[in-house]
Amino acid sequence: MPDRRKFLTRAGYTTLSALLTMGFLQKDKQKEDQTTNEIAANYPNVNSPLRQLAAAKGKRYGAAISSEFLQTEKDYADLIARECSIVTPNGELKWNATEPQPGKFTFESADAIANFCEKHNIEMHGHTLFWHMGRPDWLPYPPTLKMIERHVKGVMGHYRKSKVLKSWDIANEIIADNENEADNATYGLRKGVKRELIRDLFLIAASVDSSKKFYLNDFGIEGATWKSDRFLKMIEYLKNSDVKIDGAGIQSHLWFSTAYGFDEKGFNSVLKRLNDLEVKPIITELDIIIDTPLPDSIKKLDQMVADSYKRYLDLCFAAKVDTVITWGITDRHTWIRHPDWMPGKTFRDNPSLWKFLRPLPFDENLQPKPARNAIAKAFSS
Ligand code: G3I
C-alpha cells in the first residue's frame, strides 16, 4: 500500500476509534450525570446538623470518636461538635486503656473526650467494661470475678459524677459467632463465659452506679440469626434474674450487596421482642459495607450506601429506636480501612478496591456524602 493510503487508513482508524471513545465517554458521562441527578433528587442536601434534625424528633445522632483526632485535627473536632449529640469513645474506655496494669487506672484520654462533650453539650456512651478484645496482656478472658469487681469499681466509679456519661455497654460481644465457639448451646456465650458471671457483672455495676443506663451490646443480631436468638435469651435471663438492664446495643456493622439483601422481617422480630421485654434497642456502631458485585463507579456505590442507610433507619425508627451512633463519622478514619480489620476475601488482597470502602456519612475530606443526607432524610421523615 502506498504510504499516503496507509497513512489515511491509519488516520481513519484513529478518527473512528476517537469517535467511538468519545461516544463511550459521553455515555459514561450521561450515566454518571444520571446517577448524580438521582442522588440529588433522592437525598437533597440538608444543611442542618444531624443532631438538630434528630432532636426535632426526640432522637439522638452520634458517632464513635477518638481523643487523638480531637486533638490533632481541628476540622474533625468541629464536625463532631456540629453533628453529634452523643459520642462513644472508640477505644479510650476499653480495659487496655483504663487499667493497663492490674489495679492502676488511667483516664487521661477518656477524660479528654468527656471534657470535649461537656464543652459542646454532647452525651457520652461508655464503651465498654467487659470485652474479649481490647484487653491488656495480663488479663485473662473471661476475667475472674475479683478482677471484674476491681475494674468496674475503678472505671464506673471515676465517672459516677460525670455530667455527660449517661450510659454503659456493661458487656460487649459476649455471644459467640457460632455454636462451635460457644460454651453453652442455649445462651451461646463465648467459651469460658458462664451466664452467672454476666449476671454478677451487671449486679456489681448496679452497686457502683445505678444512675446510668445499662446496655448489652453485640453485632450480627440484625436479623433472625443463631446469634440474635442467643442474644435475646441472655437478655431474658438477665431480666428474669432481676438484674438492671435498660437496653440492647445493636451494633449494625452491615454488609449489603446487589447479590444479597437484608432480613427485614427477622430484624423487625428482634426489635419487637426487645420492646416486649422493655429493653430499649439503640443502634451503637452503624457503618455499611457494599460487597461484590461492586457497582462500576464510586458515585453508584455512595448511592447504594445511602439507600441502605435509609432503608435500615426507616425500619429502626418505625420500631421506635431513638438513638443512632455510627462507628466513626468520616471515611478518613474508618476501622474498616485499617489493615488489621479490613474485611476478608474481597478487599484484603485487592488494594485497588479499597477506594470502595466508604461506610460512613462523611468522606475523607469531611464533605457530606449521600449517606449523610439519607440519615438526615430518615430523621426528618
Ligand atoms: O492508637 C494507636 C497508635 O498510636 C498506633 O500507632 C497504632 C499502631 O497500630 O495503633 C493505634 O491503636 C489502635 C486503635 O484501634 C486506634 O486506632 C489499635 O492498634 C487497634 O487495635 C485499635 O482497634 C480498635 C478495636 O476496636 C480494638 O480496640 C478499632 O479502632 C475500633 O474501631 C474497634 O472497635 C470495635 C468495637 O469496640 C466493638 N465492635 C466492633 C468494633 C470494630 O472492630
TrEMBL record:
Q: Which InterPro entries match?
A: GH, GH10, GH10_dom
The GH10 domain extends over 47-378
Q: Reaction catalysed?
A: Endohydrolysis of (1->4)-beta-D-xylosidic linkages in xylans
Which SUPFAM superfamilies did the record assign?
Answer: (Trans)glycosidases
Q: Name one GO molecular function term.
A: endo-1,4-beta-xylanase activity
Q: What class of enzyme is it?
A: hydrolase
EC number annotated for this UniProt entry: 3.2.1.8
What does the record list as GO biological process?
A: xylan catabolic process
Cite the entry's keywords alphabetically.
Carbohydrate metabolism, Glycosidase, Hydrolase, Polysaccharide degradation, Signal, Xylan degradation
- Keyword Membrane among record annotations: no
Source superkingdom: Bacteria
Family the UniProt entry places it in? Belongs to the glycosyl hydrolase 10 (cellulase F) family.
Q: Report the protein name in the record.
A: Beta-xylanase
Q: Which organism is it from?
A: Nostoc edaphicum CCNP1411
> Lineage of the source organism?
Bacteria, Bacillati, Cyanobacteriota, Cyanophyceae, Nostocales
